# Entry
Amino acid sequence: MKIATFNVNSIKVRLPILLSWLEEARPDVVCLQEIKCLAGDFPALELKGLGYHAEVVGQKTYNGVALLSKAPARDVMGSLPGNDGDEQARYVEATVDGIRVASLYLPNGNPVASDKFAYKLAWMTRLKAHAEALLAQELPFVLAGDYNVCPTDADVFDPAMMSADALCQGDSRRRFRALLNLGLVDAFRVFHPEPHRYTFWDYQQGRWYRDEGLRIDHLLLSPQAADRLIAADIDKGPRGKEKASDHTPVWCEIA
DNA sequence: ATGGTAGCCTTGCTA
# Structure
């Protein structure tokens, strides 16, 4: 089973690129972030045309996540536990073919000296608590999405320039490592130890042209999923097209 | 030159 994550930065604008990529890459499950629309405005019919079901947690203008799957999704959960007052659309989780899959859009957190950064850290603490609850079930699961965290300086084109950014803060990285320390596996790094492999390139200042990016989109696997992991990679194809998202898809394959 | 890009039911916010 091939599972992918792709921050599309507006599903409306990115639909042609998404559809052509789905036809070429044929993932079984796709976690989308920043769809930037209400569930009722999600292009479900176009995706159904390629054989995908869609579970959508939408929001107007900002955020919004979705889970596409060839097989129907079961037991859908539309928010991250731990804060009933949180109205930002950043989490959807469901079971597909016996694997629990989450599409998550972790808060960016900039600027660091703001309530946005506190919200990011609190969100990561909630994610860890939820991962612990999932681990207790001892079943395969994949937490995939835009984590807005560069795990190490090897995931940053210019660590010094980015050192004050919320994506590279020690507090952000420690919480990301806390997920790994639970036993979750960064699928990409199992096969690709080399530094400077990116999933995001800013639209500004020729970052894509110069390959100056960040690795912030990740698939974290439970031990039961990691035992079946056979491949993972970044697909840079969609980032090089006209009207591209600033992110590109990352995927893993589970036997 | 305190800029630069993209998307949003925009004229500022988010990334």
